[in-house]
Amino acid sequence: MAKKKNITASNIISFYMDYVLEHNQQPKSVYAFSKENNFEEAKFYEHFGNFEAIEKGIFKAFYDNTITALHASEDYQNFEPRNKLLSFYFTFFENLTANRSYVVYALNQHKNKLKNYVVLKDLKSHFTHYISELGIELIETKQEQIDKLQQKSLKESAWMQLLLTIKFWMDDTSPSFEKTDIFIEKSVNTSFDVLDVAPIKSLIDFGKFIYKEKFQMNS
Asked: Which residues form the Tetracyclin repressor-like C-terminal domain (predicted)?
């Protein structure tokens, strides 16, 4: 049988996901994996360096599919940051749910929990960049170092929130994972309520006013 010639990254990802779900382990080698799926080993290396790279690529693909779907929505473009993030979450978890068996396998395959989450490295990079581009309003201090620290803290806390949501979803046994939907809505809304700078800005403005008036009265 002639070898398949037009092998894409998506093809390899599909082959890999099918293999690990059927065998509950990684293929023994790239050679064996390529042979089983009838394509040249060299084609594998055109897209991925090893199996770990595929695993990282799968979660990045979930992210990419989510972003593609969101950008196709005219409504999404007009959303405030809060609703954009909610839309991201609901769409992202639809992607995860469509591939739940693989996701659970990938994040539970090692006894060392930290090792399991190495496969999320690329997802973290893209997700935290997405967060930084949302335009979430923070308090401007006019101090570059403090503003940078705020941005870093925002991205890290958003990433931790996503990880917690993934863990909740993995443990969720409710029909259609409806409890995860509730968790998403409440956690995202709570995060934005905590970040709401309007009351703090009003307090700062009021403080400035009092200080200015007091200074003028004493001068």
From this structure: 84-210
